[in-house]
């Protein structure tokens, strides 16, 4: 007499692992949907603010404390900016490594004593830098306000003593430049601050800001669906065998 085969036990451990993995994949998909909404609003804000006629910087900075000032288009006159001392912030532009030159622009009115100006990008292939002198021209700057961009866990530490900067630290940069009471935002010039030094390229915005969060969300949700399909197929085979 042939003994009947005992049915396989329900795969509890595998089910728990699948449920955890499914929850993680779905959470990542939901996070990307949230990021999609954030990026869409950010791009709309950038388009609206960056294409508007420039407003006086002092008037924009005088707005309520805590208001988001990012990407507002402003104009200001900076005495001696073309020969001002500068810091070098490591940057990439169109896949090329280089430095952004950061100088302080003193302000004669408004709630702050100065604002840090990102004068533009110089590629590493250019060793020359703009001159630094005690007196320079009054430079009218039109540009975009940007909130500081703190570094993350892979960003190297700033090295003020070597004039090597890797993240936008308003307080530390202002101290290095001797600027008192700086505004909490940067001004990224879109007009030249050194017309006689064409290697310094104003670069207020990247050429294209990608928004692929919908693609990422569909990928995570697709992986979650594939996981459930594989798990269901495995249960079906165990039940049929």
Defining key terms:
241 residues, 4 helices, alpha/beta
Explain what you see.
The relative contact order is 0.18. β1, α2 and β2 form a beta-alpha-beta unit. The protein has two domains: 13-40 and 212-240; 52-189, no CATH class. α1 (12-50) runs antiparallel to α4. The longest helix has 39 residues, at 12-50. The chain is built from four helices and seven strands, in the order αβαβββββαβα. It has 241 residues and is an alpha/beta fold. The chain is elongated and about 90 Å long. Strands 1-2-6-7-5-4-3 form a seven-stranded mixed β-sheet.
Helical residues, percent: 25-40%
Tell how many strands the DSSP assignment holds: 7
Q: What percentage of the residues does DSSP assign to strands (E)? A: 15-25%
How many separate helices? 4
Choose one word for the global shape.
Answer: elongated
Assembly form of the protein? single chain
Mean pLDDT comes to: 87
**Topology order in helix (H) and strand (E) letters:** HEHEEEEEHEH
| Poorly predicted runs of 5 or more residues | none
Order of the strands making up the biggest sheet: 1-2-6-7-5-4-3
The first-to-last residue Cα distance is 21 Å
- Biggest sheet, in brief? 7 strands, mixed
Number of domains: 2
